[in-house]
Amino acid sequence: MKHPRAERIRTALFRHGVLLVGLFIVAFPIWVAFVGSTLTSRDIRAVPMPLLPGSHGLETYWSVLTEGGGALSRKTPVAAMMWNSLVMAVCVAVGKIVISILSAFAIVYFRFPGRMLFFWLVFVTLMLPAEVRILPTFQVVADLGMLDSYAGLIVPLLASATATFLFRQFFLTVPKELAEAARIDGAGPLRFLWSVLLPLSATNIAALFVVLFIYGWNQYLWPLLVTKELETIVVGVYRLLAVGDDSIDWPVVMATAILAMTPPILVVVAMQRWFVKGLVDVEK
């Protein structure tokens, strides 16, 4: 005879065990990076490496934030690289959302020749990875003189077929009676978009902002191609590692990696409630 209480306890223990294993797999590398950022290079190369924080953390973090680091790096302060990444991530996220909302709004609520053709042309770009069009995009950016600038970093990444498709699908679920009621009340298209559609889309916008902010923050290949002096934090980590093994300043690399992870984590934590609700609404 089965005992429901014992069964529930076994199920709870199994679930918590799986969660703890998953948490350990995710958190242990981050903990090692944090510990490494507080040690000296000699301590890190010791076998076994200490797994408790050392006493050089504040010194290392202050140094990389204000002066940069790494024996053969470009000596760009990490604070400057984080600012460049922040500008890029915010502009890419906001720009993609604005353009996608306007595109989806035009496709759903306006009737014009070739409307569905334009939609499918946008949709087809989902099947083209960025690497396929990166060389012609680089040529255009170079011809326009936008290399090593915020415009060169941001503008080529502003269009988003995925976000356009998601907003189109959401707008199709909005009852047509709302548009008709707004029209009867004398509201124009922009008024209907601003006063009705945007409030209804708030959670979707928040969820997309989190996803697109992380996408923009983690960009690696495009900033590596178009920037030289305007380093982002991900490119900075790469350049700290692009030296001989014996020349890598591991405490600086670890501290820079920890700082690079911090803003996306803060954005996810700050917008967690909206992020989850937006994902659930999209699923519906």
UniProtKB/TrEMBL annotation:
<comment type="similarity">
    <text>Belongs to the binding-protein-dependent transport system permease family.</text>
</comment>
<keyword id="KW-0472">Membrane</keyword>
<feature type="transmembrane region" description="Helical">
    <location>
        <begin position="86"/>
        <end position="110"/>
    </location>
</feature>
<feature type="transmembrane region" description="Helical">
    <location>
        <begin position="150"/>
        <end position="171"/>
    </location>
</feature>
<protein>
    <recommendedName>
        <fullName>sn-glycerol-3-phosphate transport system permease protein UgpE</fullName>
    </recommendedName>
</protein>
<dbReference type="InterPro" id="IPR035906">
    <property type="entry name" value="MetI-like_sf"/>
</dbReference>
<feature type="transmembrane region" description="Helical">
    <location>
        <begin position="12"/>
        <end position="34"/>
    </location>
</feature>
<keyword id="KW-0813">Transport</keyword>
<feature type="domain" description="ABC transmembrane type-1">
    <location>
        <begin position="82"/>
        <end position="271"/>
    </location>
</feature>
<dbReference type="GO" id="GO:0005886">
    <property type="term" value="C:plasma membrane"/>
</dbReference>
<keyword id="KW-0997">Cell inner membrane</keyword>
<keyword id="KW-0812">Transmembrane</keyword>
<keyword id="KW-1003">Cell membrane</keyword>
<comment type="function">
    <text>Part of the ABC transporter complex UgpBAEC involved in sn-glycerol-3-phosphate (G3P) import. Probably responsible for the translocation of the substrate across the membrane.</text>
</comment>
<feature type="transmembrane region" description="Helical">
    <location>
        <begin position="192"/>
        <end position="217"/>
    </location>
</feature>
<feature type="transmembrane region" description="Helical">
    <location>
        <begin position="117"/>
        <end position="138"/>
    </location>
</feature>
<feature type="transmembrane region" description="Helical">
    <location>
        <begin position="250"/>
        <end position="271"/>
    </location>
</feature>
<dbReference type="GO" id="GO:0055085">
    <property type="term" value="P:transmembrane transport"/>
</dbReference>
<keyword id="KW-1133">Transmembrane helix</keyword>
<comment type="subunit">
    <text>The complex is composed of two ATP-binding proteins (UgpC), two transmembrane proteins (UgpA and UgpE) and a solute-binding protein (UgpB).</text>
</comment>
<dbReference type="InterPro" id="IPR000515">
    <property type="entry name" value="MetI-like"/>
</dbReference>
<dbReference type="Pfam" id="PF00528">
    <property type="entry name" value="BPD_transp_1"/>
</dbReference>
